[in-house]
């Protein structure tokens, strides 16, 4: 039986692997290769890298560090976490792996605009024409022409957040018309955010800009921010009995414990700031709590 199985090798899972391996615990680390961090062309708000670092390079460095202490990333999708009388059975690759504790670090998936195919999506992301995280890279669009694809409260909040970086913001409805209540519309008007109806489609890269068809015709922007929400990858924990918010974020206490004893969660899959630093911090807390929980079950001694 492993001391802990970590599901997900993004910034949260890899941080936990580094900590747990350095606690001399036996771990397994399962991943299916879809970290959001791998989509970051260059993060410039992650402390310690004044020139920025590509998400893939950061992940590679973290994996190298975890491997130094004996962690091994196994590329299997976990399909089920089954709570047992003592510990868990983790199902992956048609096999069952027993563990005393499980840490879920499976992250979220951003909802993409419809009609933006994979190659165009990838190129636009890498060139900063498409961006998903104003907290991360709003600075990079300072005084640029920005489109936000979204509506309702979520679209309004994203547009107003970006207003802190530029005065040229257009909020484009993904569907035909905007769904904005009076307060949202008033807040957008007060901030000088232009509103345009959709539906959005016909995305193309035109030189240094990304263009999109809208009800107001074809518009080109320095960057587009989809504000369409995320799919939270909490299904495994919820099926194991863990409590989640309405939108699927796992509920944890201040030691990253879910409502299922021995099942922990860290990173984007938990409600909080969807940022690398936050994912790493939560994983450090989770790993140390797991270590101390296991030490209560049997002494950890050399
Ligand atoms: C375009 C973009 C730019 C960003 N820029 C920044 C930035 O500049 N600064 C910043 O702080 N943050 C940035 N972020 C956010 C950052 O990427 C996330 O906050 C961070 O990756 C969260 O880490 P995580 O470990 O929780 O989840 P992820 O990094 O998403 O990792 C989750 C891992 O779990 C694995 N997984 C999921 N389900 C299973 C399963 N069933 N079995 C096995 N493995 C599974 C996935 O394959 C994945 O590898 C950006 C995000 C995007 C999309």
Automatic annotation (TrEMBL):
Keyword set, alphabetical order: Flavoprotein, Oxidoreductase
FAD/NAD(P)-binding domain boundaries: 3-283
InterPro entries reported for this sequence: FAD/NAD-bd_sf (IPR036188), FAD/NAD-binding_dom (IPR023753), Ferredoxin-NADP_redctase_2 (IPR050097)
Pfam families xrefs: Pyr_redox_2
GO molecular function, one term: oxidoreductase activity
Keyword Flavoprotein on entry: yes
Protein name: Thioredoxin reductase
Organism: Sphingomonas tagetis
């Amino acid at each position: 039986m492993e001391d802990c199985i970590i599901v997900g090798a993004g910034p949260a899972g890899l941080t936990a692997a580094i900590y747990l391996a350095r606690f001399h615990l036996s771990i397994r680390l399962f991943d299916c290769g879809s970290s959001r961090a791998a989509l970051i062309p260059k993060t410039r708000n992650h402390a310690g890298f004044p020139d920025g670092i590509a998400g893939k390079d950061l992940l590679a460095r973290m994996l190298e560090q975890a491997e130094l202490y004996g962690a091994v990333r196994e590329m299997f999708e976990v399909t089920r976490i089954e709570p047992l009388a003592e510990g868990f059975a983790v199902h992956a690759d048609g096999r069952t792996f027993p563990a005393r504790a499980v840490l879920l670090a499976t992250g979220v998936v951003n909802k993409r605009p419809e009609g933006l195919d994979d190659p165009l999506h990838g190129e636009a992301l890498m060139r900063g024409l498409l961006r998903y995280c104003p907290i991360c890279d709003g600075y990079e669009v300072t005084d640029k022409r920005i489109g936000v694809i979204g509506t309702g409260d979520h679209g309004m909040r994203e547009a107003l957040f970006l207003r802190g970086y530029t005065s040229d913001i257009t909020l484009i409805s993904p569907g035909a018309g905007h769904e904005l209540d009076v307060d949202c519309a008033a807040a957008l008007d007060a901030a000088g955010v232009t509103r345009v109806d959709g539906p959005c489609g016909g995305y193309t890269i035109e030189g240094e800009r990304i263009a999109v068809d809208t009800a107001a015709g074809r518009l080109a922007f320095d960057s587009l921010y989809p504000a369409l929400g995320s799919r939270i990858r909490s299904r495994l924990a919820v099926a194991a009995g863990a409590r989640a918010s309405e939108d699927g974020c796992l509920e944890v206490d201040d030691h990253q414990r879910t409502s299922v004893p021995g099942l922990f969660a860290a990173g984007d899959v938990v409600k909080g700031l969807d940022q690398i630093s936050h994912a790493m911090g939560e994983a450090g807390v989770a790993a140390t709590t797991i270590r101390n929980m296991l030490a209560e079950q049997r002494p950890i001694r050399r």
